[in-house]
Batch of 2 targets.
Target 1
Amino acid sequence: MTETPPFTALADDTAYAEAVQLAVDSAAAYYADGTSTIDDDAYDRLVRGIQAYEEEHPESVLPSSPTGKVAGGAVVGDVPHTVPMLSLDNVFGAEQLADWAAGVERRLGRPVTAWSVEPKLDGLAISARYRHGRLAQLVTRGDGSAGEDVSHAIGTIVGLPERLADAVTVELRGEVMMTASQFEQACAKRQAHDGTTFANPRSAAAGTLRAQDRPYVCELTFFGYGALPAPGDTSDLAVGLREWPHSKIMEWVAAQGVQTTAATPVAGIVATTLDEAQSRIGEIAAARAELPFGIDGIVIKCDLAADQAEAGFSSRAPRWAVAYKLPATEKITKLLDVTWNTGRTGVIAPRAVLEPVELDGSIVTYATLHNVADITRRGLMLGDSVTVYKAGDVIPRVEAPVVHLRTGDERPIPIPEVCPSCGDAIDSSQERWRCVRGRGCRAIASITYAVGRDTLDIEGLAENRIKQLLDTGLIADFGDLFFLTREQLLGLERMGETSTDNLLAAIEQAKTRPLSRVFAALGVRGTGRSMSRRIARHFATMDAVRAADAEAIQQVDGIGPEKAPVVVEELIELAPLIDKLVRAGVNMVEPGATPPSEEPEAPAEGLPLASMSVVVTGAMTGPLAALTRNEVNELIERAGGKSSSSVSAKTSLLVAGEKAGSKRAKAETLGVPIVSPEEFAEQVAAFIPAPSL
């Protein structure tokens, strides 16, 4: 069965007319100054709903309907295009893509020779006209036939040189957008100017490209996707641009000094089969979350000029190209409330409470707000319509308020004056506010985490027992556990001889845990269980970790220049606790690891997962059912592999348990091998702890 894309269902002519007006108004607002009353996904659903209604009720079609029109019919330009700048038709899955490709080949009467596969950049299409190698004019797409002159933006667009390598007269077409860093800079400039921010990179780019009277300049980025000769030009270059394959044209564009996606992780390729094209679609989709710029799909087109010419055009789109749309990662919803929580390390973090919204296949109710400085920078208020962003496995975050949708009923977000957990003072000297008591504020949470199954694994230490030990003053942190005596424990209520002996034995056993678990128990900010394993394997000993500066810490896979100094500062703060653990005789070495100052041992040969990146998802069954996710990840690493939390083109294997969900779907798209927990257990049986078999 062919996939059916979601759309807004319309009940009658009245609902249809209202939908048409909303679509027209939204398109007009977006193309005028980059604002809109609805987000892109809602607009797409609305237009698909209008189209579906018109197909069932052709007698009710309104002349103002956005269907079949470039830019929804909202834009009228005064600069004619030499060749129409048309929109693309959309498909929403592999089956629809196959149906579309089959239609192209039926029209040609033969198989397509080659497919070009490129990312669909989330920006605005423009035409850049060069005369004798110098950039002379910039024109928006407009209604496809004519666009708006935005030549005032020349000099502010990265990737669009004012001079080409060759002194040629040519028209380049491409997408203007804002990268993530450019968007942050633009929001900061607007915040400083009028106290507001842009809603999202796409609307920021749209408004910036047209703005002529702003007192500040925002930088944009250009990615070229095509080139056309000047009308009537018969030079060798003009003939080439008319006859070359699309892939060769893009090579020429890049050689002129114009930015293309060739140097990015989502570079375009030429596929000889649709299966090969589908594989590249999966790779681009998987890379989406890590890109510094937005994409909302993948463009598939006939690569050869002859195939394009034979396939032809419809009134609004080429028949030889289509956009494979990806699920929305950005929506507009309401910010209902902000709650404040103190974490186990003492960090005070705000959390956004949202009006529920479907985003990237799941319902989002909460999102991160990072810190007070972030709230201030973005100018957020309670009751705001806000843009919420999510990509891949990343926790949803509030991007910015949609200022033009404010009603006047919005209210300032209350900022806590004391720690929301203990009521003590707040240290606000850094962006991430902390309770002045640090880890002591949430000692129960900190110790509970440290003694958990995936860290020190001390049985018999439930939260109520930890509270009892804290209340009686026997411990202040988890290091004190290793100095408890039998007499002290027997003096507590509900502690008999058997339970006391069992607890002391469990504490003694915890001294033998590998360094990776001890490091994880410390709860160093910016690290978790997976990062703790990497740090322990890299440095091998706690002494080596503590001696490392920020530059040395950065050598650990996944630690960047921002996180490394935090780790160093945390280790200094935790020095008394670490010293206490050393005095208690807790192990400070990672078995099998070699310190970076020594010659590394050759990796053991024959390990079943050697050099493999493995992702585990869903509920484990069979021999793995008794293991926590952390224990499964440890198992992967003992067997020579690297555990990962997200599926990408670099994933070697997916272990898919019950209710595997989106990760399994992504792996299938990418062609990543998938095994069941039972099959995986057979593969690594020698490394599964005996009690779990």
Note: The mean pLDDT is 87.
Target 2
Amino acid sequence: MITPYLTGYCEKLTLKTGMTQRFMISGEGVTDAEAQLVRLIHGDENPTGPGFIEREISATCNGRVKVEPQFTQAGSFIEVPGASGKITLDHGFSVYAFIWPTTPHKGRQGIITQWSAAERRGFALGINQQGRLALWLGNGVESAEIATDKPLLAKLWYFVAATFTPSAGTITLIQTPVINAYNSLLSPIVPLDHTCRVTTRSSIAPQACARSVIFAGYHTQSGGHDCIDGLYNGKIDRAGLQGRALTPTELDALCAGSEPPPDRRLARWDPSAGYTADGIGDQLVDTGPHGLHGIGYNRPVRAMTGYNWRGRDDCFRLAPEQYGGIYFNDDAIIDCHWRANLEWTVPSDLKSGVYALRLRAGNVEDHLTFFVRPAAPTAKVAMLMPTASYLAYANERFVLDSPGVEIVTGHPLVLHDCDYLLGAHPEWGRSSYDHHRDGAGVCYSSYRRPIMGLRPKHRMASTGVPWQFPADLSIVYWLEHSGIAYDVLTDEDLHCEGVAALKPYNVVLNGTHSEYYSEAMLDATEDYLARGGRVMYLGANGYYWVIAFRDDEPWCMEIRKLDSGSRAWQAAPGEYYLATTGEKGGIWRNRGRPPQKLMGVGFTSEGMDECKPYRKLPDAAAPAVAWVFDGVSNEVFGDTGLALGGAAGLELDRYDLAWGTPPNTWLLASSEGHSDHYPHVGEEVMFNYPGLGGTQDFQIRGDVTLFNTVNGGAVFATGSIAWGQALPCNAEVARITLNVLRRFMQDGPV
């Protein structure tokens, strides 16, 4: 029985008035739905707060919309679209590649194919059901499989090849482990005796398939859709096609790294070609006579070590010839490529804000969220929605897969409907906190797919409280309730436009968790402050991870998690640099830009058992800054909030001069009383020893700070993710924040 659902996504996450939005909708168990544009004000349904608030907006996209299931092609692969007609099999052929399989026993997988499983036509070099190297041949009527007698081992580089001589019907299959001390993280340095060479005969003469060549899969049909199946997990390095059967001597030369002979060369794909100082794109370069270049689908991962990596140069810029590995994953997704059900042009007079297309069919509901900017600034205040961080957490499945979630959070796991829906649809992809099915970390995330965390009512299964986007709606509600005029900006706007996006505003408010920042975003924030801008950093664990976007694809973000920072996975040796831009990944403090330098505070701990209040410190009474606490007489404040009962918690930032907190920073208040579920952040622990939890380590706290910059600029930081979620229900927190915002809005020095 199908559980009815509605879902979808928007073509653009952020857009200005006058631009056109397209809505992609899918569902099962429903045939049509009522579409209604809404302005989102508050998402948290906690009864101690204002509850869920949305306002219906008159729009041309409102009305009934037909709903049907839309197909998603998951998995990364490379397609060579111009191969049909240029690859002939009349004189036989040879197909070869270097491969590093990660799940050889998962079932049929294509390596290099021009094969239609539905038509039983063409050829395919792949892996069979038994985990062995195999060649499939078909003439449209009959097909055959020839396989080696030794199964492939996971995470070991091999040279693999198959040849076919039509006059004799002779087929040869070869798999040879690569002799390399860095061949595998899991195998011994001494090369394994795992060479296999099989020669046999077949009566089937393959007929050329009128389809494209595919790396890491093959053509088939499913549910009436042409699609790619047999998706391969692992790396593929230099590969090629020859229009005749190569000799054993010629194959041995290829295995040793030589170029193929020139006669009847059909294609020679070199994944190490195309690198620049700024990274590499999705094109796979063919150096052969026909220029049969391939295009990556669902972003196969580049800037990965190849079969010949020697372990000395850890970046593709230093030795691009050693970075021919392209990593494929059978569950990768960058763009669902759904058709648009509705289009809508944003009216020029629509107020900037957070919007969604609400879909309803009976008791089934969903919100397709997006953000609207004005064509020109309309206020002194900008609310900067941390959409890069939304992408990082998009469709996090670690609450379902990780055995340690309840230990980390101090809460029993409580699953919601969206968790079950996500579990039933692996094709909607994973977050950067998850692993692919073969264990590789997810380094790309995109918003061109349904994302459960972009729903206003979403709650984390691990804590039961809103996280990221729905938590940031508490700040939006507070702005609305306070009567403050504001424009909405997003990380995408900041990355694409730089300081020009911030310059018109006296003050910029961050969300609760601005964790992921590109170099362009960080540079723009520094420039804004240097020009006299003011930032209210109303969260924690911000300005933390390095990310990158392509200029022409702002919907897709790359991240590589390295050997420092709170992380769910770690990039392999030699794979620390982003294919998108060529810069080193990891956390910003390891590139000399800790958040303390920019915001005055930086990440110190996370814990999710409970949140705590703050206590004022002596600086709070200084005449120069006492206005921050106008109307707040209590020494202890912030003892209530929508996030686990307080204003300080979930994740915490602290003042630290050693890490770059400006020396003119006022330390106004600190949280206290955190439990040992709040451990000291890992990147600062050189040796593990007792006393690193919240009950013993004085550094486990959230700090409220304020400092001035040049030209009248200033930064106010709260040191806590939970601060924003206290704004709707804690009068003291709301008053302090409003005091600062009103002062920051004023022209002239703070």
Note: The domain at 377-745 is CATH 3.40.50.880 (Rossmann fold).
